[in-house]
Amino acid sequence: MPLNPSVAKSHVLHRALAYEPQKIVSGSGISFTLESGKIVYDASAGPSVSVLGHHQPEVTQAIIEQLDKIAYVYSGSRHTCEAAESLATEILKDAPGGLVKAIFVNSGSEATDAALKLATQYFCEVGQPKRTNFIARKQSYHGNTLGALSVSGHESRRAYYQPWISNNVSFVDPCYSYRAKGLSESNEQYVERLKLQLEDEFLRLGPDTVAAFVAETVSGTTLGCVPPVPGYFKAVREICDKYGALLILDEIMCGMGKTGTMHAWEQEGISGPDIQMIGKALGGGFVPLSGVLLNRKVFDGLARGTMVLAHGHTFQAHPTACAAALAVQKIIKRENILEQVVRMGDFLETELNEEIGHLAHVGDIRGRGLFWAVEFMRDPNTKTPFLAEHNFSNRIVEVAAELGLNILGNLGKTGKIDVELVILAPPYIVKEDEIKAIVQLLKTAIFVVSEEHA
Ligand code: PLP
């Protein structure tokens, strides 16, 4: 078959086959520079990754020092390195939420796969091998590998791979009050409805067959920075405990400080998850690194049986990656950066509400810390959504890019509810004047695209 003439010439295979990607040649602070010389505000820190910005001499130094000591250590059998040990100690100091052990892998998807496998092995080791079912949420995303995709309710990402995807996963509604809470329903009633639905699913499957419930604490790309309704995760924790299942929280996108606390679940009034995935902000994009954290119960269970994890990767706990992430985490702590996340987050919220809250198609502005989304509606008064074919938010992302603003938009059809949104998750080092500039550029982009739909 002849090649489609619109296919991009790049030898790198990019996600959009026809799209000729723009080269980024350098970065500093919260901006990057394109080959053309254009400077772009990275208002989403890539996909919510570059939390200390695009250049940090201390992190560079930590990487060089590690490479000067030793470049690679295989930590799959008898060895470890100081960087991995110190990083785990730093993250697990004082056992947050009872979390006591860490596994470091290379991507968020690998972390999700590891979490699912650890939960499954845990139940085998403690003598409950029938617990092989997982309950996850519709319109969710936990990664692209086949295990992670199995617990992701993201329709377009799953579509081609159905034959490979596990049937051991069922899906309940996410907590998404803007579109799914009834008009006269109180928060408490909404939580009760979701709790009953989750409990019904446990009962339908047979409670002693459920290994875990999997959810993002604050939903990222698929629904757009949706903080849970107060009491939601308490209710979820209660159901998991009642039926002896584990709670697995995905904080790959929303965790490691983005919502103003190191872990987003700290704001949910729960003691913590049993297993947690972390990523993105862990290494701040200087290196690929993600992780899985386990609490005492899960670790003790695993340590009861064969004493060998049936899981591992060649590059797990890579010394350079751990050294860079350790430097990132030390800077965050030493500079009290989470206080800045809260302060700048409040400022961003106010700017968004004041500057764009009144615009024609702005339906909802929501988020926490420096993790915010704007959801668009054809008619916000009646909550009439745009259809996917209107391509509304993707146009906003395009126009914003032309204006020198990088933000995240919709990533394919995620589920039954069409959510048109953009995400702003600027680096933790963002300043007030930069937030003002970002919001003004977004305002212009919304204005331009709204005119196209007038
Ligand atoms: N989980 C969540 C919530 C994510 O947002 C992502 C990536 O966007 C992943 C998992 C997968 O992470 P990765 O792309 O590093 O594999």
UniProtKB/TrEMBL annotation:
Residue stretches spanning the membrane: none
Keyword annotations: Pyridoxal phosphate
GO MF: pyridoxal phosphate binding; transaminase activity
Cofactor: pyridoxal 5'-phosphate
Gene Ontology cellular component annotations, sorted alphabetically: cytosol
Pfam short name (any one): Aminotran_3
Highest taxon, organism lineage: Eukaryota
InterPro entries according to UniProt: Aminotrans_3, PyrdxlP-dep_Trfase, PyrdxlP-dep_Trfase_major, PyrdxlP-dep_Trfase_small
Gene3D superfamilies: Aspartate Aminotransferase, domain 1, Type I PLP-dependent aspartate aminotransferase-like (Major domain)
Family to which the UniProt record says this protein belongs: Belongs to the class-III pyridoxal-phosphate-dependent aminotransferase family.
Name of the protein in its database record: Aminotransferase
